[in-house]
Amino acid sequence: MESIEQINYLKAPTATVYKALTSEEGLGQVWTKKLNVKPEVGFVNEFDFDEGYITKFKIVELEENNKIVWECEASDEEWVGTKVSFELTENDNITTVVLKHFDWRERTDFYRWCSYNWAMFLYSLKTYCENQKGLPYQERDF
What we know:
Elements: E1 2-10, H1 14-22, H2 24-30, E2 34-36, E3 44-48, E4 54-63, E5 67-74, E6 83-91, E7 94-104, H3 109-131
Antiparallel strand pairs: 1-7, 2-3, 3-4, 4-5, 5-6, 6-7
């Protein structure tokens, strides 16, 4: 099984980052404006990227201000069955975010492209948490 792992450092408290990763407002500013999200274990978050299908992630773990784990139930075929986790730690007012997208069946070109896009996700999360202005899918030109 393959795993994408990314890290970034945000000048924001973990509570701010956690809220951004679990709320409709936060994920709408960070990832896509078309979504249905609730911070509840068992809830299936829905994300629309105008690709003809809805990406659905079931929330399998929530540890407030510490860890979030999603499991993909619907999306691109390569994503179904994979998991995404966000691990948060804070030191001297800097939150470290470790993003892992794991349980990929194989390393493909789509896997490599997703690695790039997760890095862009973390950049958007950083700008949103630090400056209240993320870069959701609908506003990207890259």
